[in-house]
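Researcher: We're teaching a course module on how sequence relates to structure. For the next exercise, students receive a sequence and then see the predicted structure as tokens, so they can try to spot secondary structure elements on their own. Here is the exercise chain.
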Amino acid sequence: MRLPWLISALLIASALPQSPVPSRRALVFSGATVIDVNAGIAETGMTVVVVGNRIAAVGRAGQVRLPVDAQIVDATGKYLVPGLLDMHVHLGPWEMPLLIANGVTGIREMGSDCHPAWSAADCLDEVRTWQRQVESGQLIGPRLLALSGWPVVARSKWPAKGPRGLAETLPEFFAAASAQQGRQLARYFAERSVDFIKITGHLPRDGFLALVDEARKLGLPVAGHEQLSTSAIEASAAGMSSFEHSRVFLFGCFPGAAEFARLGLNEPDTKWRRRMVDEFDSTACQQVFSAFARNATRYVPTHLTRRMDAFADDAAFRNDWRSKYIPKARWKAWNQDADGMIKVDPSPEGRKAMMDFYRKGLEITRSAHKAGVKVM
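Model: And here is the predicted structure for the students to work with:
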């Protein structure tokens, strides 16, 4: 079978609760255009037979034997596509049916646990419960294909006080401030049985490299943000499995990259965004692309985050009709985030820098893909 994944859009059966079907009556889609992602083609006039929650046969009309008493769906002029996999999700229970409704049948969950400096809850246990409930058909949602640990962040970014009192009461090694601590933290996550480690920002160089090295020895992938203490090439060579967000190339592929890293800024201001776009060095970035391709380092662009930055002051963008599907509290938080990005620099120059930064990221992603970088 050349279509190994669940067919969605018209068929999302294996991601939904499996109600008993007494006769296991087959479902047949006839005349559909099937998107074959392995071959990279759209095949028209196809017949797809589904029995239970499995694809039993795919072929052209007349070449597929139809089960007796099958339910026939005329899919002429419609498309069947493999279930979509979203590789960067911060999941809430309310989002699960929305993901299914949009054909997303599998996700990589990027915030499965709570950092102890912010919460005393065992969030990972709750997300694992969701994972089991989806698999057993008790909960409508995509399969949770990989769960992360809490985001690793430098101690300077911890709150002064957390749910357990002072953040300083947490184990020292949680900060990965040294090579020894980095290795200890990797072993901690292995004991937590997470599927991968999530890194955010500003880790000390020795701690970060040791964490990635130890995780690689343990067979534990490391995904996350670029580190200002190391170049993307060095982090890729050390074993970083995936970089999240398109800004990784913008941060590292212009003549001022070293200076920007030394400043340790959380976000570039208008001046730095302007430089990153205007002084982008495609030759330097080809070296990064080559390293990623050579080391099988994946790239997850998440362009929608930069799109929000760029269109934050666009009334049509802010009044998207689909907002009716989003809980009011979440929609309010998203709009507050957009307001914050406008406040960074509401001048015409500032807004243009945001837009150009977003569009440059799209352009770079195309170049990275053409250079052999695996994009998720």
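Model: If you want an answer key for the exercise: The mean pLDDT is 90. The radius of gyration is 23 Å.
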